[in-house]
Amino acid sequence: MARRLIPSFNRVLVEKIVPPSKTSAGILLPEKSSQLNSGKVIAVGPGSRDKAGNLIPVSVKEGDHVLLPEYGGTQIKLDDKEYDSGSFVVAVVLVFVCV
Fold first, then answer.
1. pTM of the entire predicted model
2. 10 Å Cβ neighbour count for 10?
3. I want to staple 14 with a disulfide (CB 3.0 to 4.6 A). Which of 30, 39, 64, 93 is the partner?
4. Closest Cα partner for 43 from 77, 80, 10?
């Protein structure tokens, strides 16, 4: 059965990125280094409305890599994947490629 979570209002659904616990050379990394507060935006709500009723869109889009606060948001577990839901994105991570 296929499931799709659609956030409401200005909420964002973020899939947490699980860092590797071992390097490519086989060195085990400590548990503290495996706690990254970043993720990938999976779904975005339509936005919120101001007092006049105008729609204020969310500033992130699906596929963006974002930084998350250490605490906050609602953790959701669905099909062995961890998601965070809320309107709490700290920053968008931009990746530049030099040619």
1. 0.71
2. 17
3. 39
4. 10
Residue type, position 13, single letter = L
**Spatial distance between the Cα atoms of 69 and 7, rounded to a whole number of angstroms:** 19
Structure tokens of 30? 């400590």
Kindly list the averaged pLDDT for each block of 10 residues, start to end, along the chain of length 99.
71 80 73 68 88 90 85 78 76 73
CA distance 24 to 9: 42
Distance of CA 8 to the CA centre of its chain: 15
* Residue among 19, 24, 20, 21 at smallest CA distance from 36: 19
Contact present, 3 and 79 (Cβ < 8 Å): yes
CA pair distance 33, 45, nearest whole angstrom:
32
Helix, coil or strand: residue 3? coil
